[in-house]
Amino acid sequence: TALVALNSANAEEIQFSKIYHLLEGWAYQAIVRMEMVNHFLPTLNASYYQFNGQDAALNHEMEQRIRQVWTGMMNQSFQHCALETVHVFSPWHRMFEIGIDLTLSYR
Predict the structure, then answer these.
(1) Tens digit of pLDDT for each residue in 37-56?
(2) Which of 12, 14, 65, 85 is close enough to 32 for a disulfide, judged by CB 3.0 to 4.6 Å?
């Protein structure tokens, strides 16, 4: 769904793509991931490459932290959009690459 805006004239598709890439490429990669590695993984005895069966807890924490970045830093730039759902999954069970399923509503 991230490339849905490629060559699109639909404003909502373009906004979705912008938000998706900012959440995954900036919020997660630059902010959330480092916070998780430094502060959350040690509490679960997990590491960057070894989740120790804690995938659900890690993904849930990533969802919460991504939502916090949205609320604290991004939502003022996208006032006509509401972040309804954020679902994070870790297809390779490591911290450097995640998937995000988003649901946005438009005002």
Answers:
(1) 999 999 999 999 999 999 99
(2) 65
pLDDT tens digits, residue range 62-95? 999 999 999 999 999 999 999 999 999 999 999 9
The backbone region for 93, taken as left when phi is positive above 0, alpha when psi lies in -120 to 50, beta otherwise, is left
- Give how many domains the chain has, as a whole number: 1
The full 3-state SS of the chain, as one line of letters, equals: CCCCCCCCCCHHHHHHHHHHHHHHHHHHHHHHHHHHHHHHHHHHCCCCCCCCCCHHHHHHHHHHHHHHHHHHHHHHHHCCEEEEEEEEECCCCCCCCCEEEEEEEEC
Domain holding 73, by residue range, is 11-106
